[in-house]
Design brief:
The structure is a single chain. With 379 residues, this protein is α+β, with helices and mostly antiparallel strands. It has four helices and 16 strands. The strands form three sheets. Strands 7, 8, 9, 10, 11, 12, 13, 14, 15 and 16 form a ten-stranded antiparallel β-sheet that branches. The termini are far apart.
Length: 379
């Protein structure tokens, strides 16, 4: 059998462990050849020249190493040759079919309760329920002056009864005679004729003992005349005061004033005027005249009539405003019980004189004349 050195085309294995084992084998053979050149060389040569089975590789021991488990050279070489050099990694194989679904696991523990969610929108209003049965109400029957009374503590157990004489009015009496003699429990008495024959009623009361007046007619309450009230009792005083209050609250009343003075005439002028009574003797009046195309303007002093006769001793003075291209101011004075006389400024120094055409202005069609005054009436 040729030696390992003489094998033709033999390639050592590629893996490191197997290569180390192979080269260890070669080293051992080399040692044997090297020793053949020395003192023991003759034995080696004789051993190599011997071609019997005693020289098979299977007779040469081998120490297992790496992935080689053989214990002799023959088996080690066969093991290495059989394994060969590993080829490159092949492409991945196709994905295998999905395996069967595993068994359902056991149910986990219940989690903690989450926070409450937001309040939802109110639901729609429900349908109106049906009308309930009619209640018992007041039972039918009964007669004049009867009252409803309970028969027992049971609900709705009632009946009509006639109250005892005097009923619940035993403490209140009405009439001209003192009720104490016939009704000692009386506490209120309306004496319908306190002063015999007067017809004046008085309300009286008592807890015990004598009656005490608690209210009497206003005509029986004295009043001391004062201010403009001449009454001597409350009733009449209130009536007088009521008249004043009515006058204070009077509404404005319209009236048509007249104008006078030499050459003055309203013609087709537009006139509006109103007055009002304040209290018993105070009069407020105001008016407006818009002169027209047929109005005439004179040389005499312009005067205006009053709605209520005035007291000239009070020297009442009012104001005038005239609009005719420009604005002018003037005065009106109570000079007679039935008329106001108009005055205007006639000079730069403030002197006033009777209002006439041309002083302080020339009146024309469309001139607006406004006035107002508060004065005391004659009566």
């Amino acid at each position: 059998m040729p030696s390992a050195r003489g094998q033709t085309g033999f390639q050592p294995p590629a893996r490191d462990a197997e290569r180390r084992a192979f080269f260890d084998l070669v080293r051992r053979i080399s040692v044997l050849e090297t020793d053949g050149g020395g003192g023991g060389g003759g034995d080696v040569d004789a051993h190599i020249a011997d071609t019997t089975d005693a020289h098979d590789a299977s007779a040469v021991s081998f120490i297992p190493t790496g992935t080689i488990a053989a214990t002799n050279v023959q088996a080690a070489i066969v093991e290495v040759a059989t394994e060969g050099v590993p080829g490159p990694t092949g492409p991945p194989g196709p994905t295998g079919p999905t395996g069967a679904t595993g068994a359902t696991g056991s149910t986990g523990a219940t989690g903690s309760t989450g926070p409450p969610g937001p309040q939802g929108d109110p639901g729609p209003t429900g349908a109106t329920g049906s009308t309930g049965a009619t209640g018992p109400g007041v039972p039918p029957g009964g007669a004049t002056d009867q009252v409803l009374a309970k028969n027992s503590g049971t609900d709705f157990d009632t009946e009509w009864v006639t109250p005892a004489a005097g009923g619940g009015a035993s403490e209140v009496e009405v009439g001209t005679a003192d009720p104490i003699g016939t009704n000692p429990s009386a506490e209120l008495w309306f004496d319908t004729d306190e002063v015999a024959g007067s017809g004046v009623g008085v309300l009286k009361a008592r807890a015990s003992g004598a009656w005490v007046n608690v209210a009497r007619m206003a005509t029986q309450v004295g009043f001391t005349p004062a201010a403009t009230i001449a009454a001597t009792n409350v009733q009449t005083a209130l009536e007088e005061l009521g008249g004043d209050i009515t006058l204070i609250n009077n509404a404005w009343t319209t009236w048509t004033p007249a104008i006078s003075g030499t050459g003055w005439a309203l013609g087709n002028a537009v006139v509006s005027a109103r007055y009002k009574l304040l209290g018993q003797r105070t009069v407020a009046c105001r008016g407006r005249i818009v002169f027209g195309s047929s109005s005439t303007f004179g040389t005499g002093a312009l005067t205006l009539s009053l709605p209520v006769s005035g007291d000239i001793t009070t020297n009442s003075i009012g104001n005038i405003q005239i609009v005719s291209g420009s604005l002018y101011f003037a005065k009106c004075v109570l000079t007679a019980t039935t008329a106001l006389t108009c005055y205007s400024q006639t000079s730069a120094t403030g002197v006033h004189g009777s209002m006439v055409q041309g002083a302080p202005l020339t009146f024309v069609n469309g001139t607006r004349f406004d006035w107002q005054i508060v004065y005391e009436s004659l009566n």
